[in-house]
Amino acid sequence: MLEQLKEQFKESFGQENKNAFFAPGRVNLIGEHIDYNGGLVMPCAITYGTTLLTAPNKEGIFRFRSTNFDETLDIEVNESYQKTGSAWYNYPLGVIHNFLKDEKEVEGLDMLFFGNLPIGAGLSSSASIEIVTAFAINSLFKGGLSKLDLVVLSKIVENEFIGVNSGIMDQFAVTFGEKEKTLKLNCETLDYQAVDCNLGDHLLAIINTNKPRKLAESKYNERVGECQTALKALQKELSITNLCDIDSETFEKHKHLIPDATVVNRAKHVVEENDRVELAAVALAENRLTDFGNLMYSSHDSLKNLYEVSGKELDTIVEFCLHYPEVSGARMTGAGFGGCAIALVKKDYFEDFSNKITGYYTEKIGYAPSVYSSEIGAGVREI
């Protein structure tokens, strides 16, 4: 694939590329809608992601091209930029905008992006393109930023330039991911622990509902607001900064402070999901895959019934998994409202699983899902 991209780069820009970079996507094994509530998440990098080929140009122009999209952008090197429309290149443009805000020196650059992550499926295609751009720009122009600096910069791009109130998990996972390990990440302190993720005779199946979601246009920001409402209510009696500062027992004693039953449900999910991550880390470390799988199912139930971010498509996938004996656990992953589910499937049964879930889902929903198998991969790097 890299050789094909090099040829395409030459066709697009009339010169050969000088450098190539890769940033993965991610799945979150457990700990959903926690990252903006200051709690624990457990993401891992996957082997799908975004490749970026680059070469400097002498025209003082940033040229953006993608094998996945028809839109292109040629724009002069300037001190600042603004988001225009909803084109894909707003993500790398936002990264460069924030890089320049720190008064970093840059020059003209030709850029060709290729991604094999399904767009809008909840596998962090946006974080992948942000981080690969940030890593490349920092490396090429000797910006001197640490990996954590790049994570923070890319989160600011997502929040302020793109306009999505997401947390820091996605950018962190695609930057710091390690092969065959998951990251137990505290989203408030950014302390993390790489937890061995030995799936043994299982693999990680990713099932795309093929119902795309657009976070900036979804109810994602609404959920963020509901959590903030719950936090303010609890702060009347509790000295806390985030919902995840308390455990389930403490929440039950103080939930009467929240007058809205729907907001109670949102907060209940967050607090209990944070507890599940602690249990999941221990289960994985002790190689108790069945217990880990049961926590995945519990997480999905909570996201479906308390947080209400699932949907018929995701629920159909999890329902099938519950009745397929060679699956140890399944849940929606990502923000929901469509996107993907994940499942722990015995390797020897993956083909059978793929065929049967495709038939089941197609009959129930009316169109087919896409089913992938993935390993747990490494984070952003030059290739």
Explain what you see.
This protein is of the alpha+beta class. It has a domain at 2-194: Ribosomal Protein S5, domain 2, CATH 3.30.230. The chain has helices at residues 2-13, 90-101, 125-140, 147-162, 169-176, 220-234, 248-254, 261-285, 289-305, 312-322, 350-365, and strands at residues 19-30, 40-56, 61-66, 73-76, 109-115, 181-186, 192-196, 202-208, 327-333, 340-346, 370-374, 381-382. Strands 1, 2, 3, 4, 5, 6, 7 and 12 form an 8-stranded mixed β-sheet that branches. It has a 4-stranded antiparallel β-sheet with strand order 9-10-8-11. Strand 3 and strand 4 form a beta hairpin. Helix 2 (90-101) crosses helix 4, helix 3 (125-140) packs across helix 5 (169-176) and helix 6 (220-234) packs across helix 8 (261-285). It is globular, with a radius of gyration of 21 Å. The model has no long low-confidence stretch (mean pLDDT 94).
Largest sheet: 8 strands, mixed
- CATH fold call of the domain at 2-194: Ribosomal Protein S5, domain 2
Number of strands: 12
Task: Assign the structural class, choosing from mainly alpha, mainly beta, alpha/beta, alpha+beta, or little secondary structure.
Answer: alpha+beta
Order of helices and strands: HEEEEHEHHHEEEHHHHHEEHEE
Instruction: Assign the CATH architecture of the domain at 2-194.
Output: 2-Layer Sandwich
In terms of DSSP E residues, the strand content is 15-25%
Q: Provide a count of the helices.
A: 11
Mean pLDDT: 94
Subcellular location: Cytoplasm
Domain GHMP kinase C-terminal: 281-356
Function: Catalyzes the transfer of the gamma-phosphate of ATP to D-galactose to form alpha-D-galactose-1-phosphate (Gal-1-P).
Domain Galactokinase N-terminal: 7-55
